Amino acid sequence: MPVSACSRGSVSRAGVAQRRGYTCELTRSFPLRLSVAREYCRKLVKIWRTALLVYRELDVVLRVDGSERHFHQLASDQELVDALDSFRRFPHLVSKLTGGRAGIEYEIVRPDHPLASLTRESPSRFWPSPDDIRSDLDSFAPPGKYDSIFVFWPQRNLKNGAAVPCDAWGLAMGASKATNGATYAAIANAPSSAWTNEARGEVWLHEWLHGVCAHFAQRGHVMPERDADGGELHGYVRSPTTGWTDYYCDLMSGNVLEDGKRFGIPSDAWVA
Question: Residue 164's domain spans which residues?
Fold first, then answer.
């Protein structure tokens, strides 16, 4: 079994702002009053500007198994607490697993309307693609504003079991014109146990890494087979408390061994 070693990261600061049609929570990696030091730190740490769009309500009609079905679902307060608590721990994981070379600054945005469109990605899978939230994406996250965009959505009713067909907790894609130039990932609601049965923030990290691996692969860095999904394939064992973070640590430092060579994102690439 491969062995990994990662260092501790830093803590972020947060605030809340109101915008028309949105509630926003803003978090930055450094105190605003330390502007000079902050800009110096930016040269040493790659800051990924990140947005999370939280859709508490889903209201769609989908054609499933030859007939139309109406899905109207509302995430409970506890489901939101679980998801957002996990998301707020995601920046610490990024900092820790890159040895402090990468950081996350994020805004949490809550549109004041339901998610009203989903895209069929496969026969067994619908998801909120960039085109399904195009108006919000263009309004809140225009090209150049963010490096990464996340979407939270209520895929299932955890009380009665009704669920939009989707065989994945999270789905992701690399940055493109369709995503306004940012990596893009969607994470569904889940029982409380799902968020705690891994390193806190891991599901967000995992989906983010799919887009980030594509970003660095386009810049000439060779990724291991299946990138963020390759832990078991490369001999790693999932921990009941820290999930796949040993694998992610090696993936994020270019140390995944494959056919006698080491692949992934080299440590110095984060700040190049």
Answer: 13-220
